[in-house]
Design brief:
This protein has 303 residues and is an all-beta fold. It has a domain at 13-222: TolB, C-terminal domain (Neuraminidase). 0% of the residues lie in helices and 53% in strands. It is built from no helices and 29 strands. It has strands spanning 2-5, 11-16, 22-26, 31-35, 41-45, 51-56, 62-66, 70-75, 78-84, 92-96, 103-108, 119-124, 129-134, 138-139, 144-145, 148-154, 160-167, 170-175, 181-186, 191-199, 202-203, 213-217, 224-230, 236-241, 245-249, 255-260, 266-272, 278-283, 288-293. The strands form eight sheets. Strands 18, 19, 20, 21 and 22 form a five-stranded antiparallel sheet that branches. The two termini are 27 Å apart.
């Protein structure tokens, strides 16, 4: 792997841009950053709070899951989130103009009766709507852990719905190449779940024995799942914390391979390049962005 840049403050949500740069979030800094191919960094926007997952939507604007902020620990060369921020500013979905850096709140907690605690990851479907997970918050002072869900929203601000509730602190989210399956990973249970999509923003209510979700894969050992990206083949590439790397899982729930990294907090992967075989990986604890040539092409996203 090539280290593209260093000195990032817990990078996540990478988006590969047509010019070869990558736009990502720096959660601890409350900042959206563009990393050029030569590793130089420039600020796109400063939304504050805890900008987390990113996706390009209609009109080329960024849609950001803002978790409202964490407290942080930093020791041994690693920066790590630690519970809800003392100055927690509320969960929200933001729309960001890449050219100007203007930040607009599209949805906030309470809109359409929805509670947003820690929006985390986002993916657009081919209908122009978007799915996103809410990872929730841990409040160590109150000994509390949020019960959260998975949402669907429209870009014009007209619709926000909690489609899947409850969900076990969902993190990464993605769609199958045919758009018929929603994938989400649960961090603490370390499960990959799939949901059968029946219509835009709707899933089958009885796909599994416990409700709409079907458990597809869960590894052995002490590890956690973070974000994910899809391959064009339908494989799910899951950033795996603890084991340090990317778990590649087939649509049938079999481990295809494991790609190792050197950061215990490996949190995100995205694909780009002409053949969609360039992979950028967030080594978040150590604040680095890595690049490698992937064995198989990634799935081209909607926008």
């Amino acid at each position: 792997m090539e280290i593209v840049t260093t000195g990032l403050r817990f990078p996540e949500g990478p988006v590969a841009m047509p010019d070869g740069s990558v736009i990502l979030t720096e959660i601890e800094a409350g900042r959206i950053t563009r990393v050029a191919p030569d590793g130089t960094k420039s600020t796109v926007a400063i939304p504050g709070g805890g900008p987390n997952g990113l996706a390009i939507g209609p009109e080329g604007k960024l849609y950001c899951c803002n978790n409202g902020g964490f407290n942080w620990n930093e020791n041994g060369g690693y920066l790590t989130p630690h519970g809800i921020a003392n100055d927690y500013s509320g969960g929200r979905i933001e729309r960001i103009d890449v050219a100007t850096g203007d930040v607009e709140i599209l949805y906030k907690s309470g809109d359409f009766g929805c509670v947003l605690r820690g929006p985390n990851d986002i993916v657009f479907d081919d209908h122009g709507g978007f799915w996103f997970t809410d990872h929730g918050k841990v409040d160590y002072g109150k000994r509390a852990h949020d019960i959260v869900g998975i949402f669907y929203g429209k870009t014009d601000g007209s619709h926000l719905e909690e489609v899947i509730f409850p969900s076990n602190n969902p993190n990464g989210v993605g769609l199958s190449p045919d758009g018929k399956t929603l994938y989400a990973v649960e961090t603490y249970t370390c499960r990959l779940m799939k949901f059968n999509i029946t219509a835009p923003g709707k899933v089958a209510p009885d796909a599994g024995p416990g409700g709409p979700g079907i458990p597809l894969y869960r590894p052995a050992g002490y590890k956690f799942f973070d974000s994910l990206a899809m391959e064009a083949s339908g494989n799910v590439c899951i950033a795996t914390i603890g084991e340090s790397g990317i778990s590649v899982v087939s649509p049938e729930g079999e481990l295809v391979e494991f790609v190792s990294t050197d950061d215990i907090f490996t949190t995100n992967i995205c694909f780009g390049g002409k053949e969609m075989m360039d992979a950028w990986i967030c080594l978040s604890g150590s604040g680095r962005l890595a690049k490698t040539r992937w064995k198989r092409p990634g799935l081209k996203l909607q926008f």
